[in-house]
Amino acid sequence: MKKLFIAALFLNALFASAQLSVKKLDGTVINDGDLFVFNALSNPDDIENPNNYLGLKIYNTGTQNMQIKAKCVSISNSTGDNLQLCIGDVCLSAITAGNSYPSSSVTITAGGTNSNFDHLLNANPGINPALPVDYVIKIYQLNGNVEVGNSVTFTYRYSGPLATTGFDSLAGVGVTLKSTMVDSQLEIFTQNDVSVTLFDTNGKLVRREELTSGIQTIETASLNSGMYIVNFKNKAGQQATAKIIKN
Description:
Shape: elongated
Structural class: mainly beta
Number of strands: 20
């Protein structure tokens, strides 16, 4: 047991000298926990489009060679396809939450960096267009199959036009919410007949209601606590969305 402990300390000391850092192609540092929001979609082959292209420059600032991979930590409101993730010599058009890429790790030499080609871009509009599409990506070091050293985790978000609407657009379709914080019911005043759909943050439909004009309520007591997106559509086809929080 003592020998294993000493070996673990040796490995930690060895890989502590191989420090990983990640930047955008313009030199902006990508910090652990950063969020990057894009409002454009494009064909995954259109890597020249700067409106949804996140270039990844990965640096080894240490004195030892390092092996790296990119892990898809989680995906929200997307099936994981219709995107492009390029790491090393591998480009993928679909990724799965919990998986790491590429299958064989990429070597970055001591004091070196990767090419300018590694990137992430999204062409998936989302399961529910009223919700943002999120990919949480972790760039990390490994020795064999064991994660070592430091890592950088960030979120790539596509937020389409329907995902950016709020109270101004609600007024445009004749809807007023009493509060966006709800317990047992969501209270709504609508000047028109409206169709209402309620989605969780994974894009799953949890409620669908047809409301007539006047003061109306939608039951929310049975929902789990958390954030939801409510979408309203009137007879004229006008739509609006808002975020609500279930206590």
